[in-house]
Amino acid sequence: MTASPQPASGPGRRAVVAAAGAAGLAAALTACGGSDDDASGSSVDSGPTGGPSDDGPSGAGSDGGAAAGAEPLASTADIPEGGGKVFADREVVVTQPTAGEFKAFSATCTHQGCAVKSIADGVINCPCHNSNFSIADGSVKSGPATKPLPPVEITVSGDSITLA
């Protein structure tokens, strides 16, 4: 009697193809997952120039006093009126929709987790798939994102902005 041929040892063709596909998917998700090669803490500012009004700063968490022991994130003069600034190292974006009104949002896009990179024409821009969010309330201005940027609580005291 002759023995029937035995399959070759090692992974089969399907296993190799599946592993290659999984590796490609993992690489794609990592690329869009918001890993930021510029971890130096640099930020991007954008928008019209201007400063706070004489009315004094107001906005999310503005209680007139800085959080105990909190390191200032920025000066109010650093945030342009009608624009904002992305703080990549802190994963937050601070905006000034109108004079003296400061808002903060997560700098992580709600579509696929990429880091937002710039503010222009009243919107926060995600470079991965071109989602845009309002500087006033973080709402979606254009997709593919369907959820707003989550707000981040800040404290504005004098000309100092800190994370609450």
Automatic annotation (TrEMBL):
Chain intervals with Low complexity compositional bias: 33-57
Sorted UniProt keywords: 2Fe-2S, Disulfide bond, Iron, Iron-sulfur, Metal-binding
Cofactor: [2Fe-2S] cluster
Extent of Gly residues compositional bias: 58-67
Pfam family, one: Rieske
Region (Disordered): 33-82
Organism superkingdom: Bacteria
Domain Rieske: 71-163
Job description of the protein: Iron-sulfur subunit of the cytochrome bc1 complex, an essential component of the respiratory electron transport chain required for ATP synthesis. The bc1 complex catalyzes the oxidation of menaquinol and the reduction of cytochrome c in the respiratory chain. The bc1 complex operates through a Q-cycle mechanism that couples electron transfer to generation of the proton gradient that drives ATP synthesis.
Name of the protein this chain belongs to: Cytochrome bc1 complex Rieske iron-sulfur subunit
